Each structure stands twice: as structure tokens, then as C-alpha cells.
Amino acid sequence: MTGKTTIVNLLCRFYDPDEGEILIDGVNIKKIKLESLRRQVAVMFQDTFLFSGSIKENIRYGRLSASDEEVISTAKEVYAHDFIMSLEKGYDTKVQERGLRLSTGQRQLVSLARTLIADPKILILDEATASIDTHTERLLQKGIEKLLKGRTSFIIAHRLSTIQNADRILVIEDGRVVEEGNHEELMRRKGIYYNMFMSQFKFWEEEREVVS
């Protein structure tokens, strides 16, 4: 089990720490009712699960009381509306279980809308922008910016463009935190984060040249 997986499991309280404690607003997570905690936390994984049904139903699953207007408004906020409307029946288009008829990026956009409509207090994005094309990643980044506003967010990512603006970045290697700071601080140290970022930056520049 990697360090990042452990962090997600601890935050969602799938199990408790052997030592130390996790606090939310100064309260030990063990003292919070599990139902209440899970209601306040939303997790968006790389491998998004969509159930068999319409796109509208999949988005509404985040908050079952949401109206059709709220579903559409939320999809627009995360830039999913245009691709949904390009489908044969728009929001009423049926998808198979796991959303197999949609691309990976499209599934992620639907998942982003479902997460936003749930309006969680704590958000965990676990490799949410991995395995998608550059164009869709840009749309996801814009949608994620909307999603991050006004809530505590944990972003787990190998694509460092996703976390550049984070208040605090933890670099985990072999299950241990080996570097900590914001983007500027970590770049000045020229350690693991710096090397990863420069490697990815070179790739982004090469990709941009190919596209242009």
C-alpha cells in the first residue's frame, strides 16, 4: 500500500491510525459520527464509476434532491455541458455500467459534476486528471478550480500542473513525506519535486510544439 492510498483511507476513516490523531476543525476524527463524516467528504478517483442509467441520473446521484436545472447548471460549471449536449439524447443519454460508451475524460467530467452537486466540505481528488488527453485535462483543471473554492481539498497527483497552486505540497516517497512546502519553496530547494516538475515541464513544452 502506498503512502497516498493510506492517506485517503485514513481521511475517509476506512481504518483508524495506530498512533497519533487526525483532527478536523480541532476535533478528533474518531469522535465524529461515521455517517456525518462520510456525508461531508467526497472522493474522486482516477477510475470513475458510472452506473447504468442516464447521464442526468449519474450526476444527480451526488445529491438526489437536485432538480434538472441544478444538474444542468452544475454540468456547465465544470465544462461538461457541451459534450453532453453533443450526445444523441443529451442529459437523457443512457450509459452502460462504468460509462463504457464515454471516453475517460468524459467520464471524469461527469464525475466532477456529480461531486460538485454534492457540495462536500472536504474534497479528495485521487489522480483525477491521470490517463486523459491534454484538451480534456484543461477542461478538468477549470472545473476543478470551481470545485476547490470554499472547501478543504486534498489533491493526489503525479501531474504536478494539478497542484502548483496548492497552499501546501507534500512529496511522498516509499510511504514517507520527504519534502514539504508550496510550489515556490520546493522549486528553490531543487530536490525531488523540482526534478519531477522540470521533467514534466519539458514534456509539456515538447507536446505544445507538436500541437502547434
List the SSEs and their pairings.
Elements lengths: L2 H9 L11 E2 L2 E2 L5 H7 E5 L7 E2 H6 L7 H10 L3 H5 L8 E2 L8 H15 L3 E5 L7 H15 L3 E5 L12 E5 L2 E6 L1 H7 L2 H20 L1
Parallel strand pairs: 3-6, 6-7
Antiparallel strand pairs: 1-2, 4-5, 8-9
Helix pairs in contact: 4-6, 6-7
Structural features:
212 residues, 3-stranded parallel beta sheet, globular, Rossmann fold, alpha/beta
Query: What is the CATH C-level name of the largest domain?
Result: Alpha Beta
- The low-pLDDT segments are none
Q: Assign an overall shape.
A: globular
Q: Which structural class matches the secondary elements? A: alpha/beta
Helical element count?
A: 9
What's the pLDDT, averaged over the residues?
Answer: 84
Largest sheet: 3 strands, parallel
How large, in whole angstroms, is the Cα Rg? Answer: 18 Å
Strand order of the largest sheet: 3-6-7
Fourth CATH level, the homologous superfamily of the largest domain: P-loop containing nucleotide triphosphate hydrolases
Order of helices and strands: HEEHEEHHHEHEHEEEHH
Describe this structure in words.
The protein is α/β, with parallel strands linked by helices. It folds into two domains: 41-166, 3-Layer(aba) Sandwich (Rossmann fold); 169-212, no CATH class. Helices cover 44% and strands 16% of the residues. The protein is built from nine helices and nine strands. The strands form four sheets. It has a three-stranded parallel β-sheet. Strands 1-2 form a two-stranded antiparallel sheet. It has a two-stranded antiparallel sheet with strand order 4-5. α4 (68-77) packs across α6 (104-118) and α6 runs parallel beside α7 (134-148). The protein is globular and about 50 Å long.
